[in-house]
Design brief:
Blueprint (H helix, E strand, L loop, with lengths): L1 H23 L12 H11 L36 H12 L27 H6 L20 H7 L6 E4 L11 E7 L1 H12 L9 H14 L5 E5 L5 H8 L4 E5 L3 E4 L4 E4 L1 H10 L5 E7 L18 H11 L1 E10 L8 E4 L2 E3 L2 H7 L3 E6 L8 E5 L12
Parallel strand pairs: 1-9, 2-5, 3-4, 3-7, 4-6, 7-8
Antiparallel strand pairs: 8-12, 9-10, 11-12
Helix pairs in contact: 6-8, 7-8
Amino acid sequence: MAGDLKPFLLGVGLMFVLAFVFVKNQAPPAPVQPFDEIAARDFLRESGRDTQHPTAAVKRPTKPHGNLRDVHMPRVCLHNNTSNEYYRCRREALLQGCSEICDTTIMGEPSMFFNFARKHVDCVGVWMNEEIDASATDGQWPPPEYPPEIFIDDFRQHGAVEVRKTGHYKNRYSGGDAMQSQWTKEQIDAMVAEARQGKLGGTYGTFDTNEVRKGLRQMDVRGKVVLVIGSELPWVEACALEAGASEVWTLEYGRIKSTHPQIKPVTPDVAREMYRQGTLPMFDAVLTYSSVEHSGLGRYGDALNPWGDMQAMARAWCVTKPGGDMLLGVMECGSNDAIEYNLHRCYHKNTYTHLTANWMQMYRGTPALQTTMTFKKAPAPDAPRVPLV
């Protein structure tokens, strides 16, 4: 009997061995893919089931900053007027890709100077949306003397910001040449020399200029590639070069030509196309002084945008290297958050929190109308807090 079982047992054992070898050599199971909130929303829009985001779906790549040639978020509000229909269209278009950046109910946690908020950022959405930095058409210029009704609650951030009429400012650069459209090497080199002596007046005087220089020393930009957001005169660029920056890019509404080999001016449409092509660099640091507080108020020929300042800072976050630095100087008008329309925004605790989402507070200079502060780039949440419904 035992002799009869021996071949049978050998056969069973051989089968177990072969099965083990077969299983061992199979490819491991594919990992479970994380939930793709953007793809899910696109699917819902295409199928007509997303009533909160009713515009057409936008194709997005898997890499956030690479070759985006297939990504298109062109202007859709092509009205040449200031009708209610135009503003409704524009409001809806501005929110596309804005994710939590436009959510001013996220108040964050206490930090050094004001609350620090982490917000989800859709970098492709916020960079590719042409409506964000669109210029006003001839039929939309000059800007309205007070924000239109459909934007009032957005500008007020649901009651946290006072909107007060201050004047009717009309300095139309967007879509044309900058105030000073020619920057020469000789001019900038002279500014660098004056900065080194602490005598550079810049746009606002030597106090402001030297406060920026102190902030730059906190950051250390030696040998670094720097982005400057907004610049009528290249004094911030000169301060960056004096601090040792190897290359300075300037993002400005108006066109600028520079003969200085280390200064590279670009307009928003050029920067967006470079981002699309994957040729816009990742910057070591971002500098902006007396600039973003004007974004979206229409003063400089830009179309109205209640979230223009926050979207500009989110774009900067997207093209800054992990752990990179940011220097900021914006208007402060006392102990409240306000918009002095259409001159500028005035920042206090609430508006600073939203403006600097995902930027850790590091340093605050001498208190002034435009206090210089520095920040470090912090990670953003991988997905929005609001669940997909």
